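Write out this protein's structure.
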Amino acid sequence: MHADAAVILDVDGTLVDSNDAHARAWVEAFAEHGITVAFDHVRRCVGMGGDKLMPEVSGIEESSELGAKIASRRADIFSTRYLPSLQPFPKVRELLERLTADGFALVVASSAKKEELDPLLERANVADLILRKTSSDDAENSKPDPDIVEAAVKQAGCAKDRAIMIGDTPYDVAAARRAGIEIVGLECGGWTREALAGSLATYRDAAHLLAEYESSRFASLRAAAR
């Protein structure tokens, strides 16, 4: 099924308030294996794929035996200790409903593992609105490489100039730009407007974007389709 226009969605820090939880799960998983990593350093790397985050904060490759154990433990900690209490950002569902009503196909492009993605979308209360999903399992290289975004655009089946991404980290911005599509940045994931330089526009969160929707790029893309 091909879409005339698509919105490519990051999830963590964009739809659901989970970035701190991911960072804590990483810190705890490393600690259980006798390795101390700084929370602030890990937090700044959330949004990358785990294959890039691990060597950045610890020098350990995810593909190593130790790296695989730490990554697996992080997934367990996140799903049991943190996932059940995560909350969506304000007006996330309303924004996605508005985008759907305007004819946009919604496609997720997340660095999360496939087994984490559906539970995260459930926590964001938008799982029923999103029929197309790409995760780190669908890409050879994780963000900030463009592979996941390119896979999402391909799944949408629309031209690149008819696709726009919503994300919250510099890694989303880099991935979108390298994939050749526009991106709107949200600051709710913890990054500033300056850190999201390269975004077409930045908003505080989904509620802010929804409030400014009629003057946004989404409204002009919708109008062009009519």
